[in-house]
Every structure is written in C-alpha cells, then in structure tokens.
Task: inverse folding
C-alpha cells in the first residue's frame, strides 16, 4: 500500500472528533519521515505499514494520538505523555505568556506549580527563566514519574513533590501557578478527552472546587509580594475573582486566549498594603 492509498483508505473513516492531521502525525512518526519526505514518497510503499495501521486504528477507536505516539509539543518544546497525565493544551501557553510579562529573566524567584501533571508549565518556565527556584506538586505518583522524565529530558532542575495541593508544601513563594481540574461533571466530553485522567479534568462545584480550595489556603504559602496565575475554564473568571476578593483582597487581571475567551486569571498582591 502506498502513502496515497493509505490516506485515501482512512480519510473516509474519520468522524467529527477526528482529524486527518492526527493520521499524518502517526505516518510521519512511525515511518521516520519529514513532511517533505512524505510529499516525495507519496506514491511509494509505506515502510512500516503494519505498525502504522495499528496506531491509526487505535486512534479511530478513540485513543488520543499524543498517547499513541508518547509525546506532544507545548510552547515549542517536546513533552512525553501517557495516560497518567493530562495532554498539554495550546490554551495553557497563555499562562506562560502572562507569567513572562511580569517576571524579570535576570531575577531569582521562588515558584510553586500546583497540579504539575506532565510538568509542562514548570519545565517551560524553568527553561525560559533559568534563575527561578521551582517546586512542582501533584497528587499522582504516576504523573510525577512522567514530569521527572520530562525534566531530565530538558535538563532542568525542578523539585517534584507528591502532595494533595498544599499538604506536603513547606515553603513560601513569590509566584504560584496552577492549571487545576476545572471541567464541570455535567459537561459533555469527547471520547478522546475521556481517555485522559478524569481526576485531572473534573471538579465539583461547577468546576470551581479547586480554585476555592486553593485560595482558602494560599495566603500562608505566599511571600509578602506575590503573583498567582490560574488557568480557568469558560465563564469561570468572574467566580474566581470573587474568591480572590474574599480570601486575598488582591488585584486581578484576566488574559484572553486566541478565541477571546478569558483563559488566565492573574492575582497580584502585597500583604503589607492589605495590613494597612
């Protein structure tokens, strides 16, 4: 079977949640081809046909292509992923951009990443801001194994801690970041999303449980001057800002994603000002 015939065979089998680009990724990765190679060899026989078709069929059956290949890209960096971790999303890059807007690359900050998963946020920030000292926590030991593998791959020093939110956190921080579970339990999810760890996706209280829980406890883990960055779901920023006013009495700023949807809530506070 040629590459052309392969694409013709499977293109007609795609449903509304499936993309031809995913099949192309499988073909390129399994056969060790560049996009240019694929064009030049389009009418030639598929090199590793059996493995290629096996992965394509698993994708068509509902397995995310990132899990099938074992990696994805975030902020231009390669991250290993498996079913123990949430697949990093492009939307989360907004949080990285928001942090970079406020931090000086030449200064040292102590940073905490809550719910690190694959470690994509913590590792990306450490590569971009080498002087930061960063702790990254997750309740899942399996997720932390993936995060440590990614940190080793990227040659960055991060202190990973198994912790249920702040349960094993001892330090105070200048910056706290988090992309917590925020999907409402009643929301309809595609079969691909349902293959991801549910504990990293769903939250009680209309998806707001973790924001409220974190903000109730966060003050004791913050230095006098601090920044907090949350990724939020659709229509959640207003309630998160309410929690901030209740528990921190700090200023907030909302960052929009490329679809102009509120995606990140930044909290900026000074405990000395609040005590006056």
Result:
């Amino acid at each position: 079977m040629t590459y052309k015939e392969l694409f013709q065979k499977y293109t007609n089998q795609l449903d509304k949640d499936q993309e031809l680009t995913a099949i192309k990724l499988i073909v390129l990765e399994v056969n060790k081809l560049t996009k240019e190679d694929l064009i030049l060899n389009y009418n030639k026989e598929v090199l590793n046909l059996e493995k290629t078709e096996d992965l394509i069929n698993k994708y068509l059956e509902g397995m995310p292509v990132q899990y099938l290949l074992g990696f994805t890209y975030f902020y231009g960096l390669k991250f290993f992923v498996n079913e123990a971790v949430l697949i990093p999303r492009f939307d989360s890059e907004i949080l990285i951009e928001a942090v970079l807007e406020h931090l000086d690359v030449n200064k040292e900050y102590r940073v905490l990443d809550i719910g690190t998963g694959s470690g994509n946020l913590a590792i990306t920030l450490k590569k971009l801001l080498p002087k930061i000292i960063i702790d990254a926590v997750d309740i899942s030991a399996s997720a932390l194994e993936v995060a440590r593998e990614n940190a080793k791959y990227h040659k960055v020093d991060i202190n990973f801690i198994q912790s249920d939110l702040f349960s094993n956190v001892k330090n105070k921080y200048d910056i706290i970041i988090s992309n917590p579970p925020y999907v409402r339990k009643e929301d309809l999810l595609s079969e691909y999303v349902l293959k991801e760890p549910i504990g990293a996706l769903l939250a009680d209280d209309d998806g707001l449980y973790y924001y409220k829980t974190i903000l109730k406890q966060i003050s004791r883990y913050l230095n006098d001057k601090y920044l907090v960055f949350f990724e939020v779901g659709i229509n959640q920023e207003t309630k998160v800002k309410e929690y901030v006013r209740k528990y921190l009495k700090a200023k907030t700023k909302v960052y929009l994603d490329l679809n102009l949807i509120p995606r990140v809530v930044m909290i900026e506070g000074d405990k000395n000002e609040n005590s006056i």
